Amino acid sequence: MSLKNTTxxxxxxxxxxxxxxxxxxxxxxxxxxxxxxxxxxxxxxxxFLFRTFxxxxxxxxxxxxxxxxxxxxxxxxxNNYVYALHVPSxxxxxxxxxxxxxxxxxxxxxxxRVPKVTSIIGSVLISMGVALxxxxxxxxxxxxxxxxxxxxxxxVILLSTxxxxxxxxxxxxxxxxxxxxxxxxxxxxxxxxxxxLFLTIYPQLKNIALSMSSDLxxxxxxxxxxxxxxAHSVHDLATKEDSVTVTFILTLRKFMSLLIxxxxxxxxxTILHVLGTVxxxxxxxxxxxxxxxxxxxxxxxxxx
Length: 304
What we know:
mainly alpha
């Protein structure tokens, strides 16, 4: 498949997935953990049926996966749980776009790696954009249902998952450097092994499954399938372009999802949201040194 078609698939599948997720959370915000469970289950089944690796003798030893799986599981569940706290989807997407400053801080702390000037400038711009979007989101919530305390809790979770996501990427980098790159294997085990953890919330999952209407089941099925194609397209894109181009395309995809959300759902998009999004996109462009077209480290699997 050509680069043009792969990029188009990324935009279409990932934007559709984001659109369907917002519909689900608008109609049934309490179903966030149920959606996460089904996504994990679907990717695990697909990975097992079409595996290109040995399940019982993986290239990366099982014990090396534990830290990565714990970080990945907590990050995935927390990101979806935020929807139940009624954090605006526009703010949710903008904060999740701020992975660059989080990665810079984690790399600086864990490896004592001083970032480049362009990385620092880009991180500052992105942080400013996120701060403006957070302020804009707060004023909208205050005007609506008075659930400001839930908004604050949701924002804290999102900011925390940014750091956890950065540590997840760092752990992936360590495993790849020590055992070679095996993305299909890693994708399978990070989704399959945590499945028993969902047993701790089995009553909740059962109640949600029984209470969902046929319309919601259809939307949920389409969401899960689009999530698979989104992830597959991103991995395919990473094989055709360097990480700078991949990350920039993903940022533009998130920006496109934000525009779709604002237009289709008529969200309260303030001028601060717009300005914050512009700063996030421009800061990402500078952070990855696109002006000089230099290669960066491989894109993280969580950037999908």
